[in-house]
Amino acid sequence: MKENELIVYTEGKERPRADYLATANGLFEEGELVVLIDSWSASASEIVSGAIQDNDRGTIIGRRSFGKGLVQETTYFRDGSAMRLTIARYYTPTGRSIQKPYNNGVADYEHELMNRYEHGEFETLDSTVFSEKNKFTTKAGKVVYGGGGIMPDVFVPIDTVGQTPFYRQVSRKAMIYNYALNYTNLHRETLSQFTDYKEIINYLESKNIFTDFLQEVRKKGLNPKIAEIYESQQLIKTYLYAYICRNIVNNDGYYPVLQKVDNV
Predict the structure, then answer these.
(1) Which residues contact 196 (CB under 8 A, 6 or more apart)?
(2) In a shared domain, residues 140 and 34
(3) Domain that holds residue 187
(4) What is the model's pTM?
(5) Spatial separation of the C-alpha atoms in residues 100 and 144, rounded to whole Å
(6) What is each CA distance from 16 to 89, 146, 210, in whole angstroms?
(7) Do both 251 and 179 map to the same domain?
């Protein structure tokens, strides 16, 4: 970006607009630039992506970003406590609000990513985002879209291998996560003896917890089709192992396991 080009600006109901501009000390002003984002790209990464896209400096590839763009101010009190108050929002150079809206209430906001998933946005371009009210134009004439988060220039659908109706149901109801948590609590003493996620995986493989998971699912009223169980088995097992490993050895056990089924 060139000197004095707009990176981002903030504005609030009681706060005037404040512009943040590029300096002359650019590290990569020439050459092709590509940025990869997905639904978990949030906050600072969205500011960078939006600035690059709106200034026609590079290409954004992936899926719509999270939509976290609020400015908070901390006020300290005499007793040592503090209050963080939201005072403004972040906007891209074309005027797009990075923050996804609270229009439908807090509960809807908290489930927004799951709503995107169920609506099919992770698999196909979302027509509700590509509407005229969310349409903006860059200085070079490129059309970009708002609506919360940064919409990429090139859309990449999520890998849906193993994502059957059965998997979506147990995932949406948090059955995989809850089973992993309960299993960890019941076997914490044994699992805590392991210091490496590979040792935990070997132990879990010997216990065939997927069969036990299916029994728990059926107790809760689900009756999945055999074909869907077979298709989703590896995906569900991997998430069960990843959650259990995270409960014991934190993220050092979670991500190495999860990357077997999640390229992102």
Answers:
(1) 249, 253
(2) yes
(3) 165-258
(4) 0.71
(5) 16
(6) 11, 21, 56
(7) yes
